[in-house]
Write a structure and sequence with these properties.
This protein is α/β, with parallel strands linked by helices. It is built from ten helices and twelve strands.
């Protein structure tokens, strides 16, 4: 009986709250997965999101017994001054006291962090960034996020925005880049260029053709000139954006996640292109794909 109590007290439950899917995972004291489930996110309904999360936690508790710790990764971040969520591209979460609402429903304390921070923590602890002192994690998906882990410790900063490079302006911008408008209300944010949705949007503006980012990547590989040009510009924009990070933080490794990180050509293109923008005569920073794939977010949430 005592062994079971000790085992249950060491369980860690994580939830990755995404715009299209939400995943729960429970890790044991060896950080091995003992429960995992994924469901669709009711992204436009705040109350439905609370119910969904509570149901997932209850199912994990009923299946495993005990009351594991709860960590949640979410788009956006809690405001240190008001305690409500802000900067989330799942807009129904903005201005809501998500953590306190969940703590009331779950009857336990909840650790809540930005999803990119959870991704970076997971990869730094047990993924592609394991063994490196300073890890900068990047999500290249529908949006663009980032996080920073130093000596296995997640850095969030006093404003809870450490690593949020996606809402800085694209560096060394040229006329060919254009100046797309971001959902945050500004123009020219890095996210509007190097996210999957940004690639597709900017391609349509330049060519008049409505293609998904996946279709653009595939057509470029098959020799389509418009798509080849779009990808060449994309690799350059990504190199400029990462060079900006290297010039400021000089991390030991950069780990890429999200759908766009699955493009193999990225890892062949970036090393030479970074040399043009990094303020050094050499660039030895490894750029690596995430080891845990789309599970990094939920694992990192559990590790909170």
């Amino acid at each position: 009986m005592d062994n079971r109590i000790n085992r249950q007290s060491s369980l860690r439950l994580g939830i990755d709250l995404g715009g299209t899917k939400t995943e729960v995972a429970v890790l044991d004291d060896k950080l091995e997965t003992v429960f995992r489930k994924r469901v669709a996110t009711p992204a436009q309904d705040y109350e439905a999101i609370l119910v969904m999360i509570a149901d997932l936690v209850d199912e994990a508790r009923d299946t495993l017994g005990g009351r594991p710790t709860v960590g949640i990764g979410t788009p956006g971040a809690l405001s240190p001054s008001t305690g409500v969520l802000r900067n989330s591209n799942t807009s129904c979460l903005n201005g809501r006291p998500l953590r306190s609402d969940l703590e009331k429903r779950l009857d336990c304390s909840v650790k809540l962090e930005n999803d990119a921070n959870c991704f970076t923590l997971s990869e730094a602890m047990t993924g592609a960034g394991q063994g490196f002192m300073t890890v900068f994690g990047v999500i290249l998906g529908t949006g663009t996020g980032g996080g920073l882990v130093v000596a296995r410790q997640l850095l969030t900063g006093p404003n809870a925005i450490a690593g949020e490079w996606g809402h800085n302006p694209l560096p060394w911008v040229s006329e060919s880049d254009g100046s797309p408008r971001c959902y945050c209300g500004k123009t020219g944010c890095i996210e509007t260029y190097i996210s999957g949705s940004g690639l597709a949007h900017n391609f349509q503006i330049r060519t008049g053709l409505a293609l998904s980012s996946e279709a653009i990547v595939q057509a470029a590989a098959q020799g389509d000139k418009n798509c080849e040009q779009a990808m060449d510009l994309y690799y350059d924009q990504l190199a400029r954006s990462l060079a900006h990070v290297i010039n400021i933080v000089d991390p030991d490794v950069i780990v890429l996640g999200g759908g766009m990180s699955n493009i193999d050509e990225i890892y062949r293109q970036l090393p030479a292109r970074l040399l043009s923008w990094v303020f050094s005569d050499t660039v030895v920073t490894p750029i690596l794909p995430a080891q845990h794939g789309d599970a990094s977010g939920v694992f990192g949430a559990a590790m909170l």
